[in-house]
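Researcher: Structure for this, please.
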Amino acid sequence: MGNFSVLHRFDCFDGARPYPRLVRDGVGNPYGTTESGGAYPCYFGTLFKVGMTGGFSVLHSFTGGADGGSPQAGLTQDAAGNLYGAVPYDGASGFGARSSS
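Model: Predicted structure, token format:
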């Protein structure tokens, strides 16, 4: 069995309640979403990247506006490396949104 180590501890500002499905880019960096937390007062969720050397970055903080809010599923990735996901709340019509990065 391998060793276990914590790569990042989430807080309100960089995300809370991460979803379990991560996707990896071509060099192995994991990407994921959190249901809550983020810059818009720690509420609508984030899209994040964990670097293979231990770095962590928030790529997007959902606003609860046209970009939606509270992602509750993992991401998928196309052959070109673009990330896609969906959020069940908010969006332009108030019924969710889909997005890409």
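Researcher: Any notable elements?
Model: The CA atoms of residues 12 and 24 lie 24 Å apart. The chain has one domain: 16-100.
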